Amino acid sequence: MRNASEIAADIRTAETWDLDLCRELCEAADMLDQWDTADDETFESVLIAAAEKLGVEIQ
Known about the structure:
Layout: H1 4-13, H2 19-28, H3 32-37, H4 43-54
Helix pairs in contact: 1-2, 2-4
């Protein structure tokens, strides 16, 4: 598995949310259950929480 900084860098350079990268970041943060149950309105807050937990910037 890649480290969180590498995943976050790829997310930052993507033009739109790449759901595979987002899922990978949530997996690294041990938040896969939250990611899998997130919907169109909540996925971004889950992703931000995962980034904060890992101490990386995604935006």
